[in-house]
């Protein structure tokens, strides 16, 4: 069987860090990491104005039906295309090597718990609860250093879309979590509890 673990939380909350630590504990060869960000709708054919207006923090920005389809295939033991999203060209791309099914799929994304079809597929639902000031600092660091953006553009996007969407969609979705984890990957007790639960499901 395949165990699907959903890891949600706001931008900069530490979703990827937690997924990485879980993978290290249960075995990298047994885990597949999947990011909701890879399933942004392709916007390469949109006008420049429409591209500039894309709200990447709204549920409508994601191709959730395709993500659901791929998760079902992985749980059924079928490989799926390896997708990535290029923000510079607004395009979703298919990489050469397909994703092969593994016993554990770690799905991380800001809005995965806000989507009922995704929740139905999950065996474990986690929400990382990180303070807003920590999250915005992490986002500033990532977007300025890794993506070459200006301080002004990052703060404008945060105030105009990231923060409002977090309050409207991300934060309310924590009520669907099986476990709310303060401090994310640094929470050793929660991490061990999640790893133990994954192992218990696999041994059924």
Summarize the structure.
The chain is of the alpha/beta class and 204 residues long. The protein has helices at 15-26, 48-52, 64-75, 116-121, 132-146, 151-170, 188-202, and strands spanning 3-9, 31-35, 83-86, 91-94, 104-108, 124-129, 179-182.
Q: What are the key terms here?
A:
single chain; 204 residues; alpha/beta; two-stranded antiparallel sheet; 7 strands; 42% helix; globular
Could you tell me the radius of gyration in angstroms?
17 Å
H/E series, N to C?
EHEHHEEEHEHHEH
Overall pLDDT score: 94
Given as residue ranges, the uncertain stretches (5+ residues, pLDDT < 50) are none
Order of neighbouring strands in the sheet with most strands: 2-5-1-6-7
For the biggest sheet, the summary is: 5 strands, parallel
Q: What fraction strand? A: 15-25%
How many helix segments? 7
Explain what the structure shows.
The chain is α/β, with parallel strands linked by helices. It is 42% helix and 17% strand. It has seven helices and seven strands. It has helices at residues 15-26, 48-52, 64-75, 116-121, 132-146, 151-170, 188-202, and strands spanning 3-9, 31-35, 83-86, 91-94, 104-108, 124-129, 179-182. The strands form two sheets. Strands 2-5-1-6-7 form a five-stranded parallel sheet, with helices on both faces. A two-stranded antiparallel ribbon has the order 3-4. Strand 3 (83-86) and strand 4 (91-94) form a beta hairpin. The radius of gyration is 17 Å and the shape is globular.
